[in-house]
């Protein structure tokens, strides 16, 4: 029943999906934290930038962002991000687009986490003479992160599945292989879908269970 | 661990069940003489295109309309249904459409699930290049070339490129052909590759006329057939007769000239009917 899979390298395709997830997961965590810091900072220009960025990017469909990076940055402006050939460039552009998009959701989760830290703590830290940066990195963010592990796991799971959009700009990940198989194996088309659905469950379910456990372990008991 | 295994298999079963229900649907089709539902592409200029004002045009549409006319159905009584590549087999086997004329190449895998009539057009994989670009030479030169090619993710043409047409080329895959055209115009890619009939449709579009040309290579044979329910030999004969008549009375050539002419596409003569059960 599954012998049609022999001629395809499923692992190769899912490995690209995993790489996309890891790189853009790390990237969006960093960029999202920076954005969150901007949104709670005392500098009005930074707050305005953070708000504008998030409201623009978050409300743009990911496919549009993805295709825009490829058609705009690569094909029109010839920015290759040091990729060399088109598949490597496509991969890097896809990571860029995924980071730009998911950082918004990381930022908003993190901001809700910041709100769980009692204001008194930040005020006390200020009273002790800590700067804004010190208050954020020493007092607020460590507690904020611990309370948003579960929402961040949601973002990571969404990110894993959203990597499939990279197929639109030719990254050879799981969804691209699925299009190939749909084209060639039209007689077992539902089986093809089931195989890929199962593949994604294998990726996301353990992540969800693990991070759910972590979130219980590290939650700040108030 | 046991729980995890159980939940894993439960999730898999659920996924299977969900995908399986999607292909339910009843089947009360068959050519009843006064109306037909025909599957075509809605996004392929020159072959099957839904225009902004809701009309349908293209070579596939003309062929389907002619077949319908031969079956005693007026053009106004045809219901057009979009048949994206991945859905074609299911649309037929569920009975959602009576037949499909949507750049549907006859292949052994597809014949496992559906039957074909025709073919009505013999397309070949070819390259679309910029008008002033002569760097693409023969098929042999292409095999060793390091050109930047563009095609649609997972399509047969893209697979051909990787396997034998130009394994050393730098292949860029997009979700649709329109994205490739942007790159071709900006010189980010050297050529767009797929069936010449599809390429001709794009080159003949008003926005692109005079910018691109076909390289004129025959890299593969793609006989476009009419997809019908598996084993429906009565319908197959009706359609084959209609196609033969369309070729004989000159309507076939007229339709081909109308849709492919502006691109200077030298289409093959009407192919011999091969699908006689």
Describe this structure in words.
The complex is a heterodimer of chains A (222) and B (277). Chain A has helices at 10-40, 44-58, 62-76, 86-116, 119-127, 132-147, 149-162, 174-184, 189-218. Chain A has 222 residues and is mostly helical. In chain A, helix 2 crosses helix 4, helix 4 packs antiparallel against helix 7 and helix 5 (119-127) packs antiparallel against helix 6 (132-147). The longest helix of chain A is centred in the first third of the chain and has 31 residues, at 10-40. Chain B has 2 domains: 28-122 and 224-263, Periplasmic binding protein-like II (D-Maltodextrin-Binding Protein, domain 2); 123-221, D-Maltodextrin-Binding Protein, domain 2 (3-Layer(aba) Sandwich), CATH 3.40.190. Mean pLDDT of chain B is 80; it is low at 18-31. In chain B, strands 7, 8, 9, 10, 11 and 12 form a 6-stranded mixed sheet that branches. Chain B has 277 residues and is an alpha/beta fold. In chain B, helix 2 (59-70) packs across helix 9 (233-248). At the A-B interface, helix 3, helix 4, helix 8 and helix 9 of A face helix 1, helix 3, helix 6, strand 9 and helix 7 of B. Chain A: It is found in: Cell membrane. Chain A: Keywords: Amino-acid transport, Cell membrane, Membrane, Transmembrane, Transmembrane helix, Transport. Chain A: Residues 14-211 form the ABC transmembrane type-1 domain. Chain A: It holds the Pfam family BPD_transp_1.
Q: What structural keywords apply?
A:
heterodimer, A: 222 residues, mainly alpha, MetI-like fold, 9 helices, B: 277 residues, alpha/beta, D-Maltodextrin-Binding Protein, domain 2, 2 domains, six-stranded mixed β-sheet, three-stranded parallel β-sheet, globular, MetI-like (chain A)
